[in-house]
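During the second year of the project, the team shifted from modelling isolated chains to modelling whole assemblies. The rationale, set out in the original proposal, was that interfaces cannot be judged from single-chain predictions alone. As a representative example for this report, we include one of the complexes processed in the last quarter. Its constituent sequences, exactly as entered into the pipeline, are reproduced here:
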Amino acid sequence: MSEPDDRLETRLIHAGEPQPRFGGAVAMPVFQSSTFAIDGDAGYHDLRYIRLNNTPNHLALAEKLAAIEGADAALVTSSGMAAVSTTLLSLLGAGGHLLAQRELYGGTHGFITRDLPRLGITHTFIDAGDPSTWAAALQPSTRVLYVEAISNPLVRIGDLAAAATFARQHGLVSIIDATFATPVNLRPLTLGFDLVLHSATKYLNGHTDIVAGAVVGRAALIETIKHLLDHLGGSLDPHACFLLHRGLKTLALRVRHQSASALALARWLERHPAVAAVHYPGLETHPDHTRARAWFSGFGGVLSFELRGGVEAADRLIARTRLMTHAPSLGGPETLLTRPATASHAGLTPDERQRTGVTEGLLRLCVGLEATEDLIADLERGLE
Ligand code: PLP
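Output from the structure prediction step:
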């Protein structure tokens, strides 16, 4: 059991744990049962079934996630994209319009630009760093403002506090995808956001072994989203719930290590003669460093950089490193190194990539849990 005053580390361990414990089990057991016996004269809403997101594993996890973000309620979903798509669909109907940050995760970008228009839902992309331009993008049918806490791969941070305030002033639901920030480094509800989304596949689970999502916020909004989630069927399997529940307990330790390691690597890269540019919000040279310092407790485990030798040098580094796996995703124990133009941003045209600042040679480094010194030695060897 957790108290509201408990610190994050304590809430990660104790919030949402069943009371009394099931059979005395200290770790939450897996309830791998699709359906549950009806108790007495229970009504339809009391039926327990995996797709209805209400098995003991779902309920414990939802309570833990809500406590971690300081919210009333939360939901777990079958992937980060299930969280994004179900949330947007439940808040926007035909004729609805949303404002969204221009640099979005590729899947979210595709959903907003290709799938939502087929349902009569339109959007306008905004510059999340320039609040003075937002009012001109409003329409009478605008319902939602959608941003990401840290953009990928240039790790930019928009004016998050202004976004939450603007949404409130204009009657919009404000949504933030805080996957890259994590609740360890940023608490978006304290900035005034209505809903926080996560790809729990990444830091929340933290072990590169499941795909999951989370939606956290006010109970009434979560109830509306759950209703659609129950119908669309994007429920997380109880075994994946169990793994996410287990992963969450070490979130604070992992993210603090990854953030400290990423900062050390960014500083080391900044001084290396083969490196042309380093993008990391913890560096004083980063354009959004002041915002990061104001709102974040740590700057996250993702950084990107460019080598003087361009694409060729970037591919050579990927091939030469021993400890850095060439694979998409982030937030696990393993450090991952990719060239976004051929990975996360391969779906964009070279023109679109250039417009969003993703050069062909840009490298993205998602720092894992290895010793920082070993990662630096690996980069040093790779850059020789
Ligand atoms: N949001 C962000 C910021 C992401 O990076 C991702 C995946 O990379 C998603 C959402 C989608 O998450 P998932 O792959 O769990 O569906």
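The mean pLDDT is 96. The radius of gyration is 21 Å.
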